[in-house]
Records
---
Amino acid sequence: MFPMDIGDIPLFSMLRGRMGYLSERQKLIAQNVANSDTPGFSPKDLKPYDFAAQMKAASAGAGRVAVTQPGHMLPPSQRNGPGGAFKSKVAKDSETTLDGNSVVLEEEMMKMSDARMSYEAAVGFYQKSLNLLRMAARAPGK
C-alpha cells in the first residue's frame, strides 16, 4: 500500500489553495503600502476567492496531469505556490492624490487585517482537520 499524500484529500487541497491566495493577497497589499508615496501608483488586489470554482476544480481531478516521480513539475494551471493561479487586478480605492497616487493607507490596513484574520482561520481549520485525521488513524484505546 502506498502512503497517501495529504494534498490528495480535497479539503486539504482547497485549504492550501485558500492559504496560497491569502498569502499572495498579503504580498500585494504590502506592495501597495510600500508604494503609497509613489506618484501615479494604483493599488492592486486579487480577484475575490471563488469557493465554487475551487470545488469545481477539485471535483474535476480526472483531467489532471499525474506526477509519477518526485522530480516532475506540475503544469502552471495546477500550481498552488507563489504566483500560481492567482491574478492581480487594479483595485479601486476611494481617493486619488494630486500626484496620481490612489493608495489609501487606512483601506490597505483594513484589507491586510481581513487577509490576516482569514489566513489564521484557514490555518486553524487546517490544524483541526489534521488532528481529526490523527485521531482517526490511532489504534483504538490509545
---
Amino acid sequence: MAAMKLYEIRDTLKATVLTGDEAMDRTIVGGGAADLMEDVLAAAAEGAVLLTGLTTEHVLRTARIAGVRAVVFVRGKHPDEKLLALAESYDLPVLMTSDSLFVACGRLYMNGLRGLDGSW
C-alpha cells in the first residue's frame, strides 16, 4: 500500500483546502469513501482520508473516532463555518473538490492510494 502526503491528495483532486493548511505534509496511509458513517466506523480507518458528499457534524465526529487524518468533501460541497470551526478544533484538515465521489476515488487510486481493508 502506497502512502501519500496530504498535499499530493490536494493536488491530485485539484482540491481547495478549507482547514488545515499547516497539515499538508501529513502522511495518509489509505483512503475510503462513504456517505454512511456506520460504514466508516465498521472499517479500519486509522490514518486514512475520508471522501464524502455529506457536510454534517456527524462526519467529523465519526472521522475523529475512527482516526481519519483528513476529510475531502466532493461535488463542490462547501460546509458551513460552524463545521469548519469544529474541524479546526479536532485538528482535522478539510478539503473540497468539484469531482464526484466516483471520480475522486478513481483519481486517488490511479495515483497509488489504496483502501485500508477494502470495506469502504
